[in-house]
Amino acid sequence: MNGHGQKDNLRALFYPDDLEATLRKIVTTTKTATEESGINLLHLVFGFLEWRESDDSSKVRYAPLLAVPVELITPRSKDSKRSFRLKYNSEDLTTNLSLVEMMRKDFGLAIPELDERDTPEQYFQRFEEVLRRKPDWKICRHISLALLSFAKLLMYRDLDPEKWPENALLHHERLLELLAGAAVNEQSNAIEFDIDEEELQRGIPPLI
Fold this sequence. Notes:
Blueprint: H1 16-37, E1 42-51, E2 61-73, E3 85-88, E4 94-95, H2 97-107, H3 120-124, H4 128-133, E5 138-147, H5 151-158, H6 173-180, H7 198-201
Antiparallel strand pairs: 1-2, 1-5, 2-3, 2-4
């Protein structure tokens, strides 16, 4: 990845030294996040939705539309070209789940679903209905590296009452025992052993 115009390179809006410093910072942040959470947060983003929180707001916001997980490979110290490389890790291209949920709840807008055969441009064209209802919004056809995580949103969706049978959580025995102190029919505590009994002490090593 550098500023040249070859077919297999991506243009970046940085001078070479600034670009290398920025990319190395991204590599370090990504590595730390992966070690701590076990999740790769680095994504190559295709397209952004330019939107506003209200019709009279002058503050423009940008939300990623399509994202694919990638790996950023740093150049070797003796590499004269000093090229950073993006590696596709075979995971699927996905929509921005956080944007889909926010637009549904805050604006009553349905973000288009991604068909597995869609190109990014074909997907962008499906926003005709959204842009018709919000004429001051638009699609920005930019590519960017970004750290994205949808783990908390997936957990939030799992707890959505609409996705559970009616009152399923209210009647779950373990939740009742934990949150309401309700007793359950079956035994929930482990068997207790008096480790001071002589018979037990002969069969176990000394405790420190």
